[in-house]
Amino acid sequence: MPLDLDPAIIGQEFDRTVEGPVTAEELVAFARALGETRPEYTEAGPALVAHPTYCVRFRGGRFYPESLYKLIDVRRGFDAGKDIALGEPIRPGDTIEVRSTLHEVYEKTGRTGSMYFVVIRFTLVNQRGDVVAVVDNRFMHR
Amino acid sequence: MAAPLRFDDVQEGDELAVRSLFLSKDQVRAYARAGGQWSPRFTDDEGARREGLPGMITPGNMSMGLLASFLEAWAGPGTLRRLGTTFRGLVLPDRTIRLCAAVTQKEETTRSIELDVWLESDEGERWVLGTATLALG
User: Fold this and answer.
1) Which of A5, A58, A126, B101 has the highest local Cβ count within 10 Å?
2) Under an 8 Å CB criterion, which residues of B touch A?
3) What CATH topology corresponds to B7-23+58-135?
4) DSSP tag of B123
5) Cis before A21 (ω within 30)
6) Residue spans per domain, chain B
7) Is CATH 3.10.129.10 the right assignment for the domain spanning A7-22+59-141?
8) Measured between CA atoms, how close is A30 to chain B, in angstroms?
9) Which residue of A has its CA nearest to B78?
């Protein structure tokens, strides 16, 4: 385990926050900003669903567990990448519960020294209990 | 509207037609606003330089979004099941980028396909790398 981190916190949920409700206007603006013109993503109405990467917009109430703030300078981190696994589509009116867990912490050594990678997993669940996405956010810290 | 892509129409090794697009600063700002990422690093050259960056940059989330749209423009809306990306380099706006993908595997039982995907500069430098899974009919 890199850092002086209690391994027991890996996999533990550290935040649960409800966001939304999602509006049609937000979904359309997001899709159009990506250059989308397809009606499924850009025309308000019963068929409107969120663009598949709309799920990365949710961040929960706290981005890192409290204990991590004491070990790393979160302001000096870089977004190293994301993995999204999609479930049910997000629709206008949905409220989304963001369940945050510290999924993984690992260290890599490169030419410029050690880097720590912190993976925060957001499990996004709608008001019907359906998983709409699982988003792994990978951040790099020196 | 084109019919959704069928599983039987795809072969391992197929390469998607590259999509080149000019990524303007205004488009990046529009994404930053719609994506809840309104921050100087994504909206303002001077503000980004104060953070040690060469100028405003494109959010990694936007790169993912452009790749997702590129894949679904080929296969049809709702086909993307998974997208994983690594942000390797700064994607600077006001230049042409290229969106690329190739089919690496077909999975008969789930009628899904795996792809390598990437976003590169006009000179071929790969700034975002990833893999994706699409479910086809």
Assistant:
1) B101
2) 21, 27, 30-31, 33-36, 60-62, 64-66, 68-69, 72, 77-78, 80-87, 130
3) Thiol Ester Dehydrase; Chain A (3.10.129)
4) T
5) yes
6) 7-23+58-135
7) yes
8) 5
9) A52
Of B69, B82, B84, the CB nearest to A35: B69
Q: What is the pTM of this model?
A: 0.95
Do residues B102 and B116 lie in contact, with contact meaning Cβ atoms separated by under 8 Å?
yes
A76 to chain B: nearest residue by CA?
Answer: B51
- Map residue A16 onto helix, strand or coil: strand
Per-residue pLDDT of A23-82, as tens digits, reads 999 999 999 999 999 999 999 999 999 999 999 999 999 989 988 888 887 777 889 999
Neighbours of B99 (CB within 10 A): 22
Which amino acid appears at position A10 of this protein?
I
Partner B contacted by A82 (CB < 8 A): yes
Banded pLDDT at B2 (limits 50, 70, 90):
low
